[in-house]
């Protein structure tokens, strides 16, 4: 059990909290841990530590803010289990400072009334939850848009935080849209390519650059949104083809209308 003075220090300093778990944050991770921001987008390379950081933030919220509901969403069951495993590992490393009421494979309920629940990211799985203090969407570039539209109302009353983290996956979906076109004041954005991750060596990146198709390498390691594999026309070509001077089909006054 943590001493009271240490417990207060860790409650106020999430960087110290991470170090107490045994994780030395990278510079960008420490910056995020020290910030108080309600909307965060993490566009990060593979193996950059984004999921570990999200797990630490989720656990800190549950431990030090009683009655908090924290939801961790991922595209599939396997990814949900993996994401929640990082939360449990940190919780156990701390010696379970707040005793658990229930500790399961994909959920943790604490004696202070807080809950952390990890779910496969579909609209149907999240509809029954409300009043979330923190929503974390892992691999956000790969979740369905309908999930994003379903979770945002959960924050309406609670005023909770939303964190979306991912490696890019084509020029599509809400993660791409929010990263490229979301209002600047609405999101705190972090872009972490593999070249800025101290655990990934230049030698490994050079090997990957030679082994992978260029677009795959840029997407997986350099945080670049590449064209979708099945795209007939590029994203930029489609954007250039849209003009307010031409009316859509089947609207009053447009091509194919009865007027």
The count of β-strands is 8
Task: Enumerate the spans where pLDDT stays under 50 for 5 or more consecutive residues.
Answer: 230-241, 254-259
Shape: globular
Total discrete domains: 1
Please give the CATH class: Alpha Beta
Largest sheet: number of strands, sense, barrel closure: 8 strands, mixed
Could you report the average pLDDT, rounded to the nearest whole number?
A: 87
Provide the gyration radius in Å: 21 Å
Major sheet strand order: 3-4-5-2-6-7-1-8
Structure description:
- This protein is of the alpha/beta class.
- Helix content is about 40%, strand content about 15%.
- It is built from 12 helices and 8 strands.
- The chain has helices spanning about 5-10, 15-20, 25-35, 50-65, 75-95, 125, 145-150, 155-160, 175-180, 200-210, 215-220, 235-240, and strands at about 40-45, 70-75, 100-105, 105-110, 115-120, 135-140, 160-165, 190.
- Helix 1 crosses helix 2 and helix 4 crosses helix 5.
- It is globular, with a radius of gyration of 21 Å.
- The N and C termini lie far apart (about 75 Å).
- Mean pLDDT is about 85; it is low at about 230-240 and about 255-259.
Overview features:
single chain; 259 residues; alpha/beta; Rossmann fold; eight-stranded mixed sheet; 12 helices
Could you write a compact summary of the structure shown?
Helix 4 (50-64) packs across helix 5. Mean pLDDT is 87; it is low at 230-241 and 254-259. This protein is globular.
């Amino acid at each position: 059990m943590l001493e009271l003075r240490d417990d207060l220090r860790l409650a106020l300093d999430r960087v110290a909290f991470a170090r107490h778990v045994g994780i030395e944050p990278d510079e960008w991770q420490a910056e995020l841990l020290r910030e108080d921001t309600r909307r965060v987008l993490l566009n990060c390379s593979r193996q950059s530590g984004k999921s570990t950081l999200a797990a630490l933030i989720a656990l800190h919220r549950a431990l030090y803010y009683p009655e908090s509901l924290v939801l961790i969403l991922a595209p599939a069951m396997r990814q949900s289990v993996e994401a929640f495993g990082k939360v449990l590992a940190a919780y156990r490393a701390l010696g379970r400072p707040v005793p658990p009421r229930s500790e399961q494979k994909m959920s943790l309920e604490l004696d202070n009334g807080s809950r952390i629940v990890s779910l496969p990211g579909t609209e149907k799985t999240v509809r029954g939850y409300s009043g979330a203090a923190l929503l974390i969407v892992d691999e956000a570039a790969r979740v369905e848009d309908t999930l994003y539209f379903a979770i945002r109302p959960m924050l309406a009353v609670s005023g909770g935080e939303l964190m979306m983290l991912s490696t890019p996956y084509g020029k599509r979906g809400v993660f791409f849209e929010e990263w490229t076109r979301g209002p600047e004041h609405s999101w705190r954005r972090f872009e972490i390519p593999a070249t800025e991750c101290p655990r990934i060596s230049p030698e490994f990146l050079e090997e990957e650059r030679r082994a992978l198709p260029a677009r795959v390498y840029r997407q997986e390691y350099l945080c670049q949104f590449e064209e979708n594999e099945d795209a007939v026309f590029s994203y930029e070509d489609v954007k250039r083809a849209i003009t307010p001077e031409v009316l859509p089909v089947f609207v009053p006054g447009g091509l194919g209308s009865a007027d």
